[in-house]
Amino acid sequence: MSILDAKFVQGFIRMCNDGWEQGWHERNGGNFSYRMKPEEVEEVKEYLASESEWKPIGTSVPKLAGEYFMVTGSGKYFRNVILDPEDSICIIEVDEKGENYRICWGLVNGGRPTSELPSHLMNHEVKMLASGGKHRVIYHAHPANIIALTFVLPLKDEVFTRELWEMMTECPIVFASGIGVVDWMVPGGRDIAVATSELMKQYDVAIWAHHGMFCSGEDFDLTFGLMHTVEKAAEILVKMLSMRPDKLQTITAQNFRDLAVEFNVELPEKFLYEK
Ligand code: 2HA
Ligand code: ZN
């Protein structure tokens, strides 16, 4: 038995590799974190050290006090995670104030958790509270089609949500609450973390203009599937816009309302505006 045999570790590594294979993680692009369950912390306890020093998170996440996260390392390549997980990823513990973290496992050749740790942890705090503890996964990637759309669509939640919903009938079921959009901001710090986590109070998806996307979910399958669905819808929209600037036909606002009834989902009216 090694820590790498634990099911959540296997799931984490597989998702890193799946993202790499999708082409969403050029060089050291993207980052990923998972809030461990108490029984998972217990399961791998013998591998966790508590000697490393506490370091500032760069923001405050008091509701995450004492939580453990598996996180990708800053400057590490998703491509390498499957080959050398101990070098590329780590487990961190958050202190009792929610202001510092320490590394308990991994990053054996040095390094620190993702440069986007403030965004990850602020999103975790918001989503944990909003979901009654169910959401555990925050995933940031750089998918090409969604990034391309941030150059041609107005950077508005309503527009991105509606245009992407129209691209595939399943979209409004997969991301019923919609998609938030953050204007271009300097990545890595507290300001972009605050802006993103504010959107995450309503949405499970936030787009960073000219940069990438954040998704939140209960488990690896749902969160990867969400990223995959949004990016596929973006790819269809890019193809459609490449053929001609307008649509000959589409899914209408009333079609969405009918779908909502049949599939028992709530689709906010703010996305069903008349065009
Ligand atoms: O390179 O994706 O947003 C890591 C990132 C920063
Ligand atoms: Zn990024």
Outline the structure in words:
The chain is an alpha+beta fold and 275 residues long. The chain has 2 domains: 1-115, 3-Layer(aba) Sandwich (L-fuculose-1-phosphate Aldolase), CATH 3.40.225; 116-275, Class II aldolase/adducin N-terminal domain (L-fuculose-1-phosphate Aldolase, 3-Layer(aba) Sandwich), CATH 3.40.225.10. 40% of the residues lie in helices and 16% in strands. It has 11 helices and 9 strands. It has helices at 7-22, 38-43, 78-81, 85-88, 117-130, 144-149, 157-165, 171-174, 190-200, 220-243, 253-263; strands at 31-35, 55-56, 68-72, 89-94, 100-106, 137-141, 179-182, 205-208, 212-217. The chain has a 9-stranded mixed sheet, with helices on both faces. Helix 5 (117-130) runs parallel beside helix 9 (190-200). It is elongated and about 60 Å long. The termini are far apart. The model has no long low-confidence stretch (mean pLDDT 98). Dihydroxyacetone binds at residues 28-31, 115-116, 140, 187.
Brief digest:
This protein has 275 residues and is of the alpha+beta class. It has two domains: 1-115, 3-Layer(aba) Sandwich (L-fuculose-1-phosphate Aldolase); 116-275, Class II aldolase/adducin N-terminal domain (L-fuculose-1-phosphate Aldolase), CATH 3.40.225.10. The protein contains eleven helices and nine strands.
